[in-house]
Amino acid sequence: MPSRSLVVIGALLLAVPAFAAGTRSAADVQPRVDKSAAEVRPRVDHHLKQVEDLSQHFESVISHPCPHFGSPGGWQAYFDGEVDRVVLLWAHVEQAWLEAKQTGDDEVRRAAKAPRKHLEDARVLLDKLQTCAADNGASFSQGTVWRKIEREVPKRQAQIALPQPDAAAAPRQ
Length: 173
Hints:
Helix 2 (37-63) packs antiparallel against helix 3 (72-100) and helix 2 (37-63) runs parallel beside helix 5. The protein has helices at residues 4-21, 37-63, 72-100, 106-113, 119-135, 142-160, 165-169. By secondary structure, the protein is mainly α. Helix content is 71%, strand content 0%. It has one domain.
């Protein structure tokens, strides 16, 4: 007779796929695709402009020599600011795509997908910051920073999302 723990594990292995089959993930939920390109495009463009501005900042950081700070606190403040900008970049890229999915217009969707290439800028930036950290007598784990970025993006994305016109026009009760 199998041990009780094996029976429990077997039951769980059978139950999880059955449960998962009956649930829908956020990725399975289809967004509304009934808005016109004229409605959606300005919202997408807002986020794309922010992505472009942040990318230009990163290009400047990458192309210039590392800044030097007189104290560990100075370096940490600078580093935290750059990581925050990476979070902001990523949030705007994601939000542009979320907005674009509200229309079936292929041109708007392509425009929203295009800035994903700027996410590579963030990887190059972290490599540069690793060098700068060493120059300032500091260090950091890129894995830890990436986990922080992944955690923070959804929060930041919620903060930068433009209000929906329907919600803004609705009377308050």
